## 1
Amino acid sequence: MASTTTNASVGTAEGLRIGNGSTDQRALDFSARLRRARLGLIVALVAVVMIFVSYSSAYVVRQGLPTLDPRTGTLVHDWLPLPLPSFLFLNTLVLLLSSLSMELARRQSSREAAAGWMTSGSGTSEERTDGMPWLGLTSILGLSFLAGQWLVWRELAARGFYVATVPSSSFFYLLTGVHGVHLLGGILALLAASAAALLRRPAASRAVLVDVTAWYWHFMTFLWVYILCLLEFAR
Amino acid sequence: MATREFAAHDAHVHAAPTSWIRKYVFSLDHKVIGIQYFFLALTAVFVGMFLSLLMRIHLIWPAAALPLLGEIKPETYLTLLTMHGTIMVFFVLTTAPQGGFGNYFLPIQIGAPDMAFPVLNMLSFWVTALAFVVMLSAFFVVGGAPLHGWTGYPPLSALPAAGPGEALGADLWVISIALFCLGALMSALNFITTTLDMRAKGMTLMRMPLTCWAWFITAILGLLAFGVLLSAGILLLLDRNAGTSFFVPLVTINGQLTGHRGGSPLLWQHLFWFFGHPEVYIAILPAMGLCSQLLSVFSRKPIFGYKAMVYAMLSIGFLGFMVWGHHMFMSGMSPYTAFAFSVMTMAIGVPSAIKTFNWLGTIWKGRIRFTSPMLFALGFVSLFISGGISGPFLAQPVLDIQLHDTYFVVGHFHLIMGVASIFGIFAATYYWFPKMFGRMMNEGMARWHFFITLIGTYAIFMPMHYLGMAAHLRRYSQLTELKYLHGLVPLQEFMTYAAFVTIAGQFLFLFNLFWSMKFGEKATDNPWEATTLEWTTATPPPHDNFGGHIPVVYNGPYEYSVPGAPRDFIMQTDPAILKAH
Amino acid sequence: MGLVLLVVIWLITFISAYFFLAKTWWLPVGASAAAAGIDHHFSTTYILMGIVFVAAQLALGFFAWKYRDRGATARQALYSHGHNGLEITWTVLTLVLFVGLNFMSSSIWASERFRPAVSDAVEVEVTGMQFAWYFRYPGPDGKFGATKPELEDPSSGGEGAIGLDTSDPASKDDVVTGTMYVPVNREIDVILRAEDVIHSFFVPAMRFKQDAVPGLAIHMHFTPIATGDYEIACSQLCGLGHYKMHGILRVVSQEEFDKWIAAREAEKQ
């Protein structure tokens, strides 16, 4: 463990300094950077998990907790279940599709990176921007999902459920909103990856970016399915 | 976040930046960021200390008119107490040991050229600095800063009508804490990735200095805890501004219905203390790691029970997440739950005791050099014992009936979380100043500073235990109303006088710090004859830490007084010891 | 320097310990059935922890002096990485001490909090608000009348402050006061409520403390064993008047209590 670490970090330093190192050297550089980025992503996801763990426990506690009715001095339950708009399931489908296209983009870009150091000496990716359509498609699907969520909010509001109407509607807006903000972060990362492609940044660094964005994206999809299950089955 | 890091990582080649802004303000260098954190905490600690001085003055001379500030009103006292607690806990005890010294020395001690994600590192500092500005701005808005205490229990903290300062001031307070959480999460991400991925060849986990272990475990605690506080803060903001009822049930303020219904004030307490208890360890673990290190260095002896120390810190970190309920014995939580929390809390005392025994074991049969960092490390052990010994009282719900929310609690956490951690920060400053600034600090001034601070803090905080036993409640701005408090006023007066002396002593430290930067004796590369990697490189370290090569590690961090060795210490990079074993 | 450190640490230890031993400042005199048990457990904890405190501090000071660097001629420091037997010994010892202490006190905690009040206990509803305590007795019907939050008006004091609904028949005989009267040697069933923010009902002499939380009605009990006036304090930060939110608990004989409550009932008619 320790010795590979060293080789890898030496590799990072060398690889950054010398553009035309050997193929082995740059493959090593790529895998070291990929590993570090993925490790960072896992750690970041732990923080995201903690946020949703606290909201889930707050949800369950708030749902089950009786509160004092001061008129009678007795404890009563005030939780009213929120009927979910069926439109949500269409949104879910869109997000699942976006995860699929994200995965295609990820595989494409790591192939390009591998091809990059096999064939070209300069390390840049010339016209090899085939991953672009998938990245673009993923962004569009992601934005459609967010637009869909916005429509769901509008529908709930039309039915008279606002943020503060009942506890279940507060939690609905909270969970969908916080998830939406996280997904927006993913879309920004996708835009950065697309920009990197357009600006002809080295294929390897773009591949690293696309790879971690993809895993982040899959996680957001998973998180959404979890939130939907919580809202649907623990009403 | 990690994903966006890499575009910038390409630019972060190991050549030093040349422009002043990139070098000193928006620097990506972990050493510069560490110093920035250090000065942020230094500013914060003097602000926090000043607030505490005003509180002590108000307690014994409630009607005194102060120059510029005038008379301190009872509600202002609560504002001072809230801001003192918040600033000290977040911007000093969390910021200095981890953000400051951890940032500077973790990469060097494990033999890395920088943190894993330098841009993220810079961002986490600036978000923290912004949080501090937002926190201070609460003083200057209409209604002033909040008065709900650093724990911010709703409904008091959730209803703008509940008191002065609970309007805009309280919003700024919550926003500042949320920003701080973001900064702390980014920082934790960096610390964990760096420790796991960037260790030099031969630097196995069990060869890491205990400081690195402490920073690593602290980062894990921060990662798990700050997300929860962030979530709770968002809920509180929604309750305050969007009319939701997460924490606020049906209540009236001064006869007026608030429109909230059904929320649970206890839910906030659970979320807050789920963060709040690990936060105690976030403050104290780096000091534990550092003092272990210093006791070994200056006793010229290997640390007693290195593995036991590591396992003790790991179990403190683990158990630290299962004891939050001991802050809530009197809150209306189920008494059965309270009993379970109390057993866990007593259990967490065990690894703390193990560490204390190991510290005593380390200096036992050593050859102690009484340098200023060593004095503060010994002071830390004394304070840790004194502050720790009151823990088993408070951990028992039966005794908590009497002691909860009294000065006994205030004395307990100030000694162990406040002063002991601050002693860790002082020790770190005296120890690493030569490496950071290239000069030694003045030893004479440091010794005076040590004895004034040690005796002074004991004189302030030990009497708090007596007050607490006599049922003196905390957060009381005037001692005139309850009759049984009248007899305790002389003790309060004594504490205020002690505070004056202690605070005066801190200016000696401040003077020494800046004076030594300019006029201190030039430091060599290894002035303390210590073994860890930061002492193998130049003073101050070059931009990439080791001047173009990456060190290879052969030894554990505490090889002192090895029989048959030519010197009484063997550097971690020295191959020599391979023959000795 | 080693000697100076020894003197300072030992002096701090001795002075701190002196005031604990001399009981210059101590727990207020207990006046409830639970006080003796709680105080006894406090003393047990305090003796055990006191021994650990003094021993550890003295050892620290002594080691600092004894193992100071005596210059180049002295022997080298001991080269030792620790001792597993010792580690295991002190781990087990502290575990037994700490967890044992906890279990010793569990029966007191159980009698205080696990069981509900006895059926013939005197019921008193305690309501906290910024910044006063009000006490309500159910009257001869044994039932508390309804209260309404929209009727709460702190400035009117008494019944108005807790929002008593006078149209409810059960509230006709409810007595609301600003001083808490209880009979001696009877178990008191306290029902804790708060109108606005969290307060905490603390009677030091009764060894009784419990938060009053809005949205909850918390039942808790204690048994006063000596007549007299005892101060009630608020122990949870509740706003700018927190320091002046206090009251009086008046423990009287059963006859006096009956007389007092009858007089209050007569006033209401």
Note: Chain B touches chain A through 58 residues (CB under 8 Å).
## 2
Amino acid sequence: MSDHKTIKNIEQELIDDFSLFETWEEKYEYLIDLGKKLPPLDPAFKTEAYKIKGCQSSVWIHSFAKDGLVYFEGDSDAIIVRGLVGLMITVLNGQPAKEIVNAPLDFINTIGLSSHLAQTRSNGLRAMIKQMKLDAGVLG
Amino acid sequence: MQRETTYDVSAIRKQFPILSRKVKGKNLVYLDNAATSQKPSSVIDALVHYYSHYNANIHRGLHTLADEATAAYEASRVAVKTFIGASSPDEIIFTKGTTESINLVAKSWGGTFLEKDDEIIISSLEHHANIVPWQMIAAEKGAKLRVIPMDDNGLLDMDAYSKMLNAKTKFVSIVHVSNALGIINPVEEIIRLAHMNNALVLLDGAQSSVHLDIDVQTLDCDFYVFSGHKIYGPTGVGVLYGKRHLLEKMPPYQGGGEMIKEVSFEKTTYNELPFKFEAGTPNIADVIALKAGIDFIDSIGKPSIRKHEEMLLEHASMHLRKIPGLKIIGDVENKVSVVSFVIDGVHPQDLAILLDNQGIAVRTGHHCAQPLMQRLGIVGTTRASFAAYNTIEEIDALVLALNKSLKMLL
């Protein structure tokens, strides 16, 4: 596939997008918009088995393999976190399992989201990424 | 020391260095006082002064530094005694905080006096710290935990409570003021009914100690517990008040130095109150600085602070009610300066993140009271809680920031 983008390519696109934002409002409006656009997860997967429990909100991630690549669907009851789910799906969807497992995902630091979004306890990105990588490891 | 002057909030703010800091480029608006209050310079200075001038281990040393440290430590105990109206400093035990104080009573009193099938009563409004220690001791002893129900506004069903009391009821452990909603429980009535039934009562004063005038002798509670960090004092120090005759009958909670009278390998005799419950080197610096927190409150006077906080609460409630879809949880008359709310279609976490970006610190989530949230059928609330140094302008900033956040989210 000639149009295949690597995780690194997509990360760079996001870094470029985020660099255009001048205020925190624009950054969060982007995430909120991403959250609103994320298709709702099939209720069959909104169960304890797919849930990442957090102190504040819940996240559900469903992972599956197709044609040797790994795909994700997800949801959250909070809209900004839903945006983060969408962000991670944008970066990791349709990639080979090995690439997902080994991705350093440095873009998170570069795009400059508040540190509390990355905290495990607030059920942020770190917990989400951990589960996506674990799933990819199993599916790969 | 109460003065009949007008309330000078800007002079009070000047005593709190942290209040002049910026958060994300904006002036900090700190409205998470129910979680912990900020500290005046006097408290910070007391810590620095202790470590720079008379750091020493207390009670046993025979040198000047030990003398000074012991005197300051015991002066704090006397200040706490006066702060809550206890009859003797011997009834004041220093702990790590409210949580440890409750655990001490559950373990020491419960471990000794609870028997199989005995009943412990708590309420629907409890913080996890006043649920889990009782569950643990109940499981150990085969005792039962019973819960006073409440209505949708968070008011306890006193009729149900009175019927719950029976010969098996040995202990009632109740939050004086709800941390999640700010509601003041009818503790006088709760204590009276419990005592008619020969049950003991512990009041969780984590929230009430800073807002309400507390006189444990008038209240006639058997135990009263609170944390130093919520009354403008340092973290890591809390208080257990207990009636002397009860504390005397209770075995030590931990063993070690300080709590003993004589030790041999065959037998140890325990020290007297309050030292029996303070094993090991205590948190000397924070205990000493706690007195500065109490002195800060006394320098303004609790009634003046309460009046100011009530004005803030009224202003906040009035403006928040105007926001479409916003509902204050526990919107009742008898409460302290805490306003907890939900907004239709808005997750509290989203609000907290957007408010933080505007320099506003509030608390969102279940407030360590998951059973209460389940009872109310919500995932959590957004809670703004006010202290002596908050201003009308800060409430207005909160309302403005809320409206802006909602525009972004909805």
Note: The domain at 45-298 of chain B is CATH 3.40.640.10 (Aspartate Aminotransferase; domain 2).
